[in-house]
Amino acid sequence: MPRIRLPLPDPEKPPPGPFRPEFWRSPLRSPQLTAMLGLVLLIGLPAVALTGLLSNDAYQPGLGGNALGRDVHGPLDFYLFGWPTGPSWLYAFTQGAHVIIGLAVFPVVLAKLWSVIPRLFEWPPVRSPAHALERLSLALLVGSALFEFVTGILNIQYWYAFPFDFTQAHYYGAWVFIGALLAHIPLKLPTMRRSLALRKAVLDGAGPLASPAVDAHARPLTSPNPGPTTLTRRGLLTAVGGASLILVLQGVGQSVGGPLRSLAFLLPRGRTRPGPLGFPVNKTWIGTGLHRGAVGVKWRLTVRGQRTVVFTREQLLALPQHTYDLPIACVEGWSTTQSWTGVRVQDLAALAGASGRMMLTTVSLEQGTYGSATLGHEQVSDPETLLALRVNGLDLPLDHGYPARIISPAIPGVHCTKWVSEMQFQTVEA
Amino acid sequence: MSRLRARYGAGPAHLLVLVASFAIAGAAVVGWVQRPRDLEGVLIWFAAAVALHDFVLLPLYSLLDRITVARLPVRSAAYVRVPAIISGLLMLVLFPTILGFGAHREQAASGIAEHGYLLRWLLLTAALFLVSAFAYALGPIRRRT
To answer: Which secondary-structure segment (H or E) carries A38?
Structure first.
């Protein structure tokens, strides 16, 4: 059988412009620089991806309407385990880490892309089927990485400048990224290790500073026609590291809160209102557009189990009250821990004749996104899961969910329904 | 095996890894098309972002570098580049807050009308350039010792 030869362009004659190696003049680009940045990302990116998947798990999209319209029967719509309730700061920690590490590695991602950009203009564009597939995979990797970082960074700043649903796009985009990263790591790990070993050899005085090609076929990243050194490698790493550090401080400030909160001086969550009730809020009363009358003397809480029971706020206050320090932890990476007082959800279940393994759907007077949320049996059976009536020793203010709100350890803040009007206990099979 | 290597251009592990990767991406698209309008929005938004970078931002920052830093003496250019890169990266990441793009939503969410982000960014930028200027002034001394 005759071998099929594709009419390949002449590898020795690239068209003028970026396809010629001498077009790229920065003396900074080298396999060593790329490998050093790659090593940072090898640790940082899996950490961001993993904490992101944990957040999907914490939202328990398989329960009730928690998936916000996403059909959870697709091939990647699984969640691994029911979300635990302890330690109570678990979600504040995993989601704080997701946002902080994400902010930290974004400048490194940009520097890494800059360091390899001559490869985008390889000549010939395709050497073999293997090379073509690899370049396609790289397109997915770079595209999905930028997509994930940009949507995430816009979301934590309340600029919803995208014509699609954030949760769904950020979730499926993440899977494209994870898939491409899982291929990129094993394919490029040997190159990275060789480059780093070579750097060590150079540092040990074993060879000249000129970097030989580490990838047999690919054009070396080192410029054959370098311009003057207007920025050293140390200078570049200082710039990238400096930007990362300042961004990390922003993330730490809004996540740890307390005296550190003002570190987040360039993010929306760097400040709180004064007083014991001034802690951060995700949706204000004014933002709901509800009328004051809806939460006045006519307000009732309906609890549905084996039977239906209706409570006034006075009746709820007459039930045994419990106080716990619990965080509100937002998907945007900010959190705040306060002292909540109210009725155990377990006690309300018992009064409605519900028992056993149960999930709980809570309905708010406010019928927007997250106007309803479903808690799993782990949350329902935890004694610290409360229908809170007071916070920090005072009645809940309207912004924090008066007359009553849900608070439960280690769940995403938006599942702690405010202005609760109805609670539905449903038995689940073990 | 050697026929695969000759035709494909790499070993079987290479092919296997990439096929697995594309399978995951395909599964993500299967999930995504549950809302076809969403996927369409993503693709349009993505193409617009690429065009914005390649045709507006890239020429802009290249030109800025050409007419400013590239004209400086080699020795001092780095001391302008480093604070400029840090300040620029912060603006790139935080511009929705610094320029107030999300402010309306944010106020409805948090109940706080926060101003002054632009001033803070300018002050931070000034501080970065100041530190860099000190480092530049001290540089020759350190090199002598």
So the answer is: helix A31-58
Contacting A residues, span 1-30, partner chain B, CB-CB under 8 Å: none
DSSP 8-state secondary structure symbol assigned to residue A232: -
User: By the CB < 8 Å criterion, does B102 face chain A?
Assistant: yes
Residue B124 in contact with partner chain A when CB distance is under 8 A: yes
Report CA dihedral (A416, A420, A422, A427) to the nearest 10 degrees. 20
* Residue B46: predicted pLDDT: 86
Other CB atoms closer than 10 Å to residue A43's CB: what's the count?
Answer: 10
Place of tokens 């006075």: A314
Q: What does the pLDDT average to over B43-54? A: 87
**Shortest Cα distance, chain B CAs vs residue A10, angstroms:** 18
ipTM: 0.92
HSE, side-chain direction, 13 A CA sphere, residue A35: 22
Question: Residue A20 has what DSSP assignment?
Answer: S
Report the distance separating Cα A153 and Cα A104, nearest Å. Answer: 11
The two structure tokens encoding residue A295: 């939460």
Which one of A172, A178, A254 would you mutate to disrupt binding with B, by most B Cβ within 10 Å of its Cβ? Answer: A172
Residue in A with minimal Cα distance to B78: A231
Q: How many CB pairs under 8 A join A and B?
A: 214
Residues 162 to 191 of A: which have CB under 8 A from any B CB?
Answer: 162-165, 168-169, 171-173, 175-176, 178-180, 182-183, 186-187
pLDDT confidence bin for B45, thresholds 50/70/90:
confident
| Residue A101: pLDDT over 70 | yes
Asked if pLDDT for residue A388 goes beyond 80, the answer is yes
Contact by Cβ (8 Å): A374, A359: yes
What is the distance between the alpha carbons of residues A359 and A349, in angstroms, rounded to a whole number?
Answer: 10
* Lookup: tokens for B43: 């693709």
Question: Touching check for A84 and chain B: CB below 8 Å?
Answer: no
| pLDDT score recorded for residue B70 | 75
Q: Record the pTM.
A: 0.93
B27 contact residues in A (CB cutoff 8 A): 74-76, 175
**CATH architecture, domain defined by A285-427:** Alpha-Beta Complex (3.90)
Nearest to B93 among A103, A140, A180 (CB): A103
Q: Do A268 and B110 touch (CB under 8 A)?
A: yes
* Minimum Cα–Cα distance from B88: chain A residue: A243
Predicted confidence (pLDDT) per residue in A51-73, tens digit = 999 999 999 998 988 988 777 77
Q: Is the pLDDT of residue A350 over 70?
A: yes
For the segment B3-35, what is each residue's pLDDT rounded down to a tens digit? 889 999 999 999 999 999 999 999 998 888 877
For the segment A223-233, the average pLDDT, to the nearest whole number, is: 88
